[in-house]
Amino acid sequence: MGVLQYFYKAEDDIQGSKVRAICVGLFVAFGGVLFGYDTGTISGVLAMNYVKETFTSTGKFTAGQTSLTTSILSAGTFCGALAAPLASDVLGRKLGLLISAAIFTVGVVLQVAATSLGLLIAGRVIAGVGVGVLSAIVPLYQSEAAPKWIRGAVVSCYQWAITIGLLLASCVNQGTHARTDSGSYRIPIAIQLLWAIILIVGMLILPESPRFYVMRGKVPQAANSLSKLRGLPKTHPVIENELQEIVANYEFEKALGSTTIWDCFRRGNHQLKRIMIGIVIQALQQLTGINFIFYYGVQFFQNSGIKNPFIIQLVMNIVNVIMTIPGIALIEIAGRRNLLFWGAVVMSLSEFIVAIVGTALPDSQAASKCLIAFSCTFIAGFAATWGPLAWVVVGEIYPLRVRGKSVAICAASNWLFNFAIAYATPYLVDDGPKDADLKAKVFFIWGGCTFLCMIFVYFCVYETKGLTLEQIDELFETVPSARKSKGFVPADNYIRESPELDKAVVEAVEKV
């Protein structure tokens, strides 16, 4: 089935407003621009001559200063991601996103005002907390708000927004890096305020997640929200059936008792397996080495003798944006497992080629061309697969009662490894007396980790293409092996066949 055929299937498969479903998911994904832009900005800022002269006494950042300034954002995001359930499960997904944007804004203001590393670092920590909260709630809201026929593509748009943010940062850095005043770094940092304002205005308009309302016992409000998201009246059979399925599954989960953060690690309902899949896939996404390119790309290309490193970084970001689009288009056609597996193959081969050629032919024109070409191939493989799909998987594989907490834990895993890599990388590639001076050899590490991605996908990642979030619960309950998940066929009314829940479900639905 072609891409166009897929998106224009029969109406009995795709009910409701297609445009509304797509637009809601795309707008919430805009939160990724904040994350991507901030990540891309710091790489260029630390390579600017004015910043080096103003923020250091030697005109050059040490490996320690570079690693701390870059990685401290991830320390903040780790804390923010862990704290996200306090907002998303208590106040709501919508209000949680508004809070994250407000925190991010405070951090940006401090960075703009900075004239020393201390205030710049403090601002990045606070901004990081906001990004961490946002990173845990965006895929959560998208998964719960999007219809099943486009859920994977919608959540993938979060990663696409991250790549757009990276590209915008690269463009702005290219335009300001040669300035000899504070505008060289203040302009690119201050532009982040615009992205936060756009997100805040949009979230004031969008409805709350219907599944959050069900969690809070507000079934009529859930019906209203679902009606707005699907563009159908509350009495439409599609709305009634979807709401009943949500309520039935939540009543089943609620019968198991109240939840705490430790319930995310219990064996019941295969939750331990699910949380480990989410934690590992987020960790491996970082261990592919992708943020090595975007955090330290400009400095790495400078040290590798490549001319115009800012232009090269811009090219890398363009590849990143463009190649995310095929991943979004194919995710509901090729499926999660296929894209993740073959994406890992492309990335691993590209990284090993960079490492081998860079080691065998150091400081040569051939090595420089190979570095650029296969770095682009690596980024293309990541952008079309592991970039968006890692967020898709963690956004959809958890039961409603622990979904907010589980996604937060997985996002925290992403940020923990992001911090570790961002902090350690300068020591791995720099040529100081206490540094490893690996240069291109560092790609042996990334290539080896990416090879592990292939093994992990084959044995552990379930295929969830075309399933509702409630059917994914059934998948984990009835299919013991990820390798057999492609053949899964959901049963009708799987949860509602439990007789002890019939009364609770009926009473809840009658509130609509």
Automatic annotation (TrEMBL):
<feature type="transmembrane region" description="Helical">
    <location>
        <begin position="406"/>
        <end position="423"/>
    </location>
</feature>
<keyword id="KW-0762">Sugar transport</keyword>
<dbReference type="InterPro" id="IPR050360">
    <property type="entry name" value="MFS_Sugar_Transporters"/>
</dbReference>
<dbReference type="Pfam" id="PF00083">
    <property type="entry name" value="Sugar_tr"/>
</dbReference>
<dbReference type="InterPro" id="IPR003663">
    <property type="entry name" value="Sugar/inositol_transpt"/>
</dbReference>
<protein>
    <submittedName>
        <fullName>LAMI_0G16160g1_1</fullName>
    </submittedName>
</protein>
<feature type="transmembrane region" description="Helical">
    <location>
        <begin position="339"/>
        <end position="360"/>
    </location>
</feature>
<feature type="transmembrane region" description="Helical">
    <location>
        <begin position="187"/>
        <end position="206"/>
    </location>
</feature>
<keyword id="KW-0813">Transport</keyword>
<feature type="transmembrane region" description="Helical">
    <location>
        <begin position="443"/>
        <end position="461"/>
    </location>
</feature>
<keyword id="KW-0472">Membrane</keyword>
<feature type="transmembrane region" description="Helical">
    <location>
        <begin position="310"/>
        <end position="332"/>
    </location>
</feature>
<feature type="transmembrane region" description="Helical">
    <location>
        <begin position="153"/>
        <end position="175"/>
    </location>
</feature>
<feature type="transmembrane region" description="Helical">
    <location>
        <begin position="120"/>
        <end position="141"/>
    </location>
</feature>
<feature type="domain" description="Major facilitator superfamily (MFS) profile">
    <location>
        <begin position="24"/>
        <end position="465"/>
    </location>
</feature>
<keyword id="KW-0812">Transmembrane</keyword>
<dbReference type="InterPro" id="IPR005829">
    <property type="entry name" value="Sugar_transporter_CS"/>
</dbReference>
<feature type="transmembrane region" description="Helical">
    <location>
        <begin position="372"/>
        <end position="394"/>
    </location>
</feature>
<feature type="transmembrane region" description="Helical">
    <location>
        <begin position="275"/>
        <end position="298"/>
    </location>
</feature>
<dbReference type="GO" id="GO:0005886">
    <property type="term" value="C:plasma membrane"/>
</dbReference>
<comment type="similarity">
    <text>Belongs to the major facilitator superfamily. Sugar transporter (TC 2.A.1.1) family.</text>
</comment>
<dbReference type="GO" id="GO:0010255">
    <property type="term" value="P:glucose mediated signaling pathway"/>
</dbReference>
<dbReference type="InterPro" id="IPR005828">
    <property type="entry name" value="MFS_sugar_transport-like"/>
</dbReference>
<feature type="transmembrane region" description="Helical">
    <location>
        <begin position="95"/>
        <end position="114"/>
    </location>
</feature>
<dbReference type="GO" id="GO:0005536">
    <property type="term" value="F:D-glucose binding"/>
</dbReference>
<keyword id="KW-1133">Transmembrane helix</keyword>
<dbReference type="InterPro" id="IPR036259">
    <property type="entry name" value="MFS_trans_sf"/>
</dbReference>
<feature type="transmembrane region" description="Helical">
    <location>
        <begin position="21"/>
        <end position="48"/>
    </location>
</feature>
<dbReference type="InterPro" id="IPR020846">
    <property type="entry name" value="MFS_dom"/>
</dbReference>
<dbReference type="GO" id="GO:0005351">
    <property type="term" value="F:carbohydrate:proton symporter activity"/>
</dbReference>
<keyword id="KW-0325">Glycoprotein</keyword>
<feature type="transmembrane region" description="Helical">
    <location>
        <begin position="68"/>
        <end position="88"/>
    </location>
</feature>
